[in-house]
Design brief:
- Helices cover 41% and strands 8% of the residues.
- The protein is α/β, with parallel strands linked by helices.
- α2 crosses α3 and α8 crosses α10.
Length: 460
Amino acid sequence: MREEYINFNEKRMYIFSELVRRYWNGGLKSAEDLDDLVRDIMDKYGFGDAEIPFIKDHIRLAMGLDPKGNVAFDHELTIIKNAGEISHPIVAKLDGPCEHCEEPNCECSDICRYETSIYRRKGPVIVNDKCLNCGHCVSSCDFGAIADKIEFMPIIDLLKDSKVPVYAAAAPAIAGQFGDDVSMGQLRTAFKLLGFKDMIEVALFADILTIKEAFEFDNLVKSEEDFFLTSCCCPVWFNMIKKNYPGILEHMSPSVSPMIASGRILKKLYEDARVVFIAPCIAKKAEAIEQDLKGAIDYVLNFRELKEIFNALNINLSELEPDYKDQASFGGRIYARTGGVSFSVKTVVNRLEPRRVIMLRAKKADGVKNCKEILDDLYQGKKVDANFIEGMGCPGGCVGGPRTNIDVYKAAMKVNEFGEDSLIMTPFDNLNVMKILKHLGINSIEEIINNEEIKKILSR
């Protein structure tokens, strides 16, 4: 295995951090400046001329653009300035590195066996109509052969435009991701230093969707044979069902994810707002540009990218003065880990119908393999002893996403701790929910499933 390619995920982050630092400070203005970056990368890591196409591909992907091999840089910076969105495909396989891989049982050839089954001997072929964009192939290949687009370059221009209010919508899994001594209040301050108008907890919108799904469960599950598939969180889970199990799709909630709800609602509340979702997930990049969901979220950044942005711009989180806001409930905040959605919906169902005869019995699956197993059982009519089925594509839930900064066990613990710090126990008790709903013309919690405007916002 060639030394230059080893640990390439870290080298890729160096490429990204250099793009951020130079573009933010006005040091990237022309194609020649991008060529200078290529030479600096070659000198730093000992790449030869044969690797120039590979380096250019990673620069383009780190800018949010498609790889083009050895094609000369030309209008990339102009394209970025005018980009309204990042286009498909999100995940790309690059030419070159697989030819030098000497691993006899390369992990990337097995990682997506539950999604797409077409592979070449030297590396995977990504079949975009089958790929679920879970991103685990990206993090598992440390040879730089598979990579996802990074969306920060066009965000820089938005953040520097004082006329555009840009909101950071932070996923619940963000708790603890940037150090044991870094609070959510300090993260909010950091986002404001970058130029964001504010950081909003997506857990707040999870609270709203929890209430909606609780009503839906109450309406749909009337007998012991009925069951309800939540769609509330994970695009990998949703797309797995949509693409492979159409026979049980009718049991799935029509709700959008908390990410989509956050963008749609923030844009209703704040004129001309732009919304950037912050997550541990690569699949969310693809979800944001699905045809029926486009426009809610402008760009998606993951935790690993955000960490590099803070480092590149010399923002020391632990030294910042915290800006605290208590926006979400315990229930909304624990959406980040396996079982969180089930717990949250059950608390609201119990509040809505405390005398309900058929109680909510949850079955949780995490990781693509486990999700597939439970869906196979449901599809074949096997009894699963549950009427509320929660699935998350990553092991452990969102806290096990491909772009987290800490291990899944610690991340789940931090999410639980942050949830317990909330002054609000359940979504039903969250007065912030009612304030938002009133802004949208709703005066009682029951209207959440009958009001046409809110149904349009919260449904696919």
